[in-house]
Amino acid sequence: MWPVGDPKQPGFHFCGKTVAPNKPYCEAHCAVAYHKRGVDAA
Questions:
Q1: How many Cα atoms sit within 13 Å of 12 on the Cβ side?
Q2: Which 3 state secondary structure label does DSSP give 3?
Q3: 29 CB contacts (<8 Å, ≥6 apart)?
């Protein structure tokens, strides 16, 4: 599950959406976490 916020601060939590099949994060956070090879990040 995707961490949200600073773990040392009140209000820290994890994304509560259903994780994508065979992935550790939901679809939206997988899109942020994983990049296709050969694609440069901005």
A1: 7
A2: strand
A3: 2, 15, 17
* pLDDT tens digits along 1-41: 899 999 999 999 999 999 999 999 999 999 999 887 776 66
Cross-strand bridge partners of residue 3: 14
Q: Which residues contact 4 (CB under 8 A, 6 or more apart)?
A: 12, 13, 14, 15
Specify the pTM.
Answer: 0.68
Q: Are 20 and 13 in contact (CB under 8 A)?
A: no
Q: Please, are residues 29 and 2 in contact by the beta-carbon 8 Å criterion?
A: yes
